[in-house]
Structure formats: C-alpha cells, structure tokens
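Encode chain A's predicted structure.
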Amino acid sequence: MSLQTDDCNFPLLDVQGLKKFFPVKGKGLIESFRREKGQVKAVNDLSFQLYEGETLGLVGESGCGKSTTGRTILRLTEPTEGKAIYKNKDIFKLNGKALRQMRQELQMVFQDPYSSLNPRKRIGHTLEESLAIHSIGTKQERTERVMEILYKVGMKLEHYYRYPHEFSGGQRQRLGLARALIVNPKVVISDEPVSALDVSIQSQIINLLKKLQNEMKLTYLFIAHDISVVRHISDRIGVMYLGNIVEEAPTDKLFESPLHPYTKALLSAVPIPDPQIKKERIILKGEIPSPLNPPSGCVFHTRCPHVMNICKTQTPMRKEMSIGHSVACHLYE
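Encoded structure for chain A:
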C-alpha cells in the first residue's frame, strides 16, 4: 500500500507537460535530406505525480503512449517538451555523471526480458555489469551482491552461470527484475512486465513485486494494458488515451465509480468470475485515431457514446471531482 502521509505532500517524481513527438519523414535515398511530413504525437501534454512507496498504474489500449512515457522519463528516448522533477532536479536537464547517478535510482523492467538480456553473456556477468557501470563494490562484493539478489527474486545460486536461453519466460522476467534492483533503486518503472506470461506465472511475478516493494521500500510506475492486473498491485490508476491521462483515481474508487466514458468501457470488459452476475458491456465503435493526426478537441470524441458539439472543438481540462479523483471530460464541466 501507499506510504504517502500528511508529512509527505511532495511527490518523489513529478512529470509536468510531457510531450514526445516522433518525426515522420518522406521517401528519399539520403535520410538527412528527407522532408518532415508530420509528427507522431505518442505522448501529448502528460502530467502526473508519483509518491514515495506507492504504486501508480498506467493503463490503456496498445498505442496510447504508456511505454513511451516510461522510456522518456528515463531518457532512453529524449523528450520533445516538458519536465520530470525527481528530488528537486529536472531529469531532462541532467547530463554526464549526474544523469548516470539518477539512473541508479530510477530503473526499468522491460516487457520482453529475453531481448533485454545479452544472449552471449552469463547471467552473473550481466548482473555484475550494472554494478561495475555505477562503480559499486569490489569484484568479490559484486559477486556476493548478485548471489543475494538472485535469492531475493526466487532464483537459485547456480543460475549465476547460465545463459538467458536456458530459462523460461517467468524466470527471465525474474532476472530482468533482478537487474533493475541490483543497484538499489528508489523507483522502478515496470513496462508490461507480465503481459507475455501465463496467468499462473503472472500472479507469481505480481506477488514478488509486492513483496520486494515492502522489503526494499520501492516506488513503482506499473505500465500495463490489462486493467485487472493493474488492480491487484496499484494504489492509484491513471487511464491513458492517445497520449494523455483522461482519468486518475485511487484504485478502489476508480472501480467503484468510474467517470470517463473510456474508463467505463475498459472496466466493462473485465470478466467477472461468476456466471450468475450480468453486467452491461460497452462496445466502443471504431479504432483508436492515429497519433499522427489526432482529432481536434477531445481526442476521444470520435468513439465516445456521449459526444457533444463542444467535445469536437475544445480540449477538456482535468478536473478534480473528489479527493484524488480527477477526470478530463466535458460531461463534468
């Protein structure tokens, strides 16, 4: 559960007006001479706060900008605009040694653990490499630290000498988590960490994440498209649509009283393990608009069952409806 208290009113990570646009260039033999035809607005004016000890879940359909958000915060891809304030420092303005020190405290678990692990290196060497990059410990101390973190994530000590292809998907995800945690970070951004796993393995990884959060006092940004998975680990949930958050609320409140039409549609698709209970299924018409040419006004208006004229011309501002529960929708203005 969240460790946020009255004495901790300042967020550990404060993302303000984040934008990430990818240029789209025309055809040509020489890339540097190609003209820019447009921009893919993957993340468009996104803002949220992450408090120490909590888990904030980001959910939404594929292509809404969730993964790009996580990668941009860590500067794995450079932002187009905005700020990401961590401990009173703007991550987007850090360089060199300061950026490397920041990355020791903010780590990422990737969606595909196999492609993120070097297939030519033994697991022990891969994990020790993270410690060497940050100049942590001697050679012997690094080896001992690797053994310790392998045990923490539920692996055996002999796995130190094996290669990534010798592990199952669930084991590789544990190793990806071990690599993120070995440098003792404060914040872990998990990008779809269980989407490629069987349901039984998903529950094991979720339980492991919660256990490690309590033991190591971690703060999570948990990115996923499965809102039922996010429900089991998150203290708060932000619902993303086409590059922005349309609703944000504490987990229980979001499931009990969703406000945005898109959130209601997502929740209506969550199966209930009781055949006697019937609920209305909200089917959204059409596909997600292209981020290359997003709709004017509210970006959801092309699929919204409650669309009004104002929705087509004016972008709704996020409004706090109750403590911690905000929504960007003209229905509540």
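Residues 199-216 form the longest helix (18 residues).
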